[in-house]
Write a structure and sequence with these properties.
By secondary structure, the protein is mainly alpha-helical. The protein has four helices and no strands.
Length: 165
């Protein structure tokens, strides 16, 4: 993989990580506080949803760390070594964890009595959005796991080829 491309991708990954950190520390808590100020009945649900949002972003950051590990291996040409599975495992695990967080929010929205400032469509939208995100997250985890299995197969073939040569 060309060195310039790897550096550009690593820069994007680092930038995305920092944006996530900013979202965790500033954007999510501030937005939640603003919503509670605009509609005080949101106060009881603020903490669980803020915690879920911060955990979701942390899962994304962990996936970025795994991606960075794989990019480093790509720049060195060592993607097809058994230790490369660590990066793939981190990405798959972080995506699975984010899907679990989303499923927890879906369950919370389903079971909690969430107030609505108008006709309740916001709650229905949140419920449908989290349901769709759980389905999409599950599909992403399955696709990433399939990619990980292909990497395992490629590592095995590479090891076999190195033994022949």
């Amino acid at each position: 993989m060309p060195r310039l491309l790897v550096v550009a991708l690593q820069t994007v990954v680092a930038g995305a990580f920092l944006v996530g950190l900013y979202a965790q520390l500033v954007v999510i808590p501030t937005s939640a506080a603003d919503q509670v100020e605009l509609f005080p009945p949101y106060a009881p649900i603020r903490l669980p949803l803020v915690a879920a949002a911060i955990a979701f972003v942390a899962c994304g950051q962990l996936a970025l760390v795994g991606l960075g590990m794989l990019l480093r291996r790509a720049s060195r040409g060592t993607v097809f070594q058994p230790s490369a599975l660590t990066g793939a495992n981190v990405v798959v695990g972080a995506t699975a964890a984010a899907t679990v967080v989303t499923a927890a929010v879906f369950a919370y929205v389903t079971l909690a009595d969430i107030p609505s400032p108008s006709d309740g469509m916001e709650v229905i939208g949140l419920w449908l959005g989290t349901a769709a995100a759980v389905v999409a997250g599950t599909a992403a985890v399955l696709l990433l796991f399939a990619g990980r299995q292909l990497l395992v197969k490629a590592i095995g073939l590479r090891t076999e080829l190195d033994g022949v040569v």
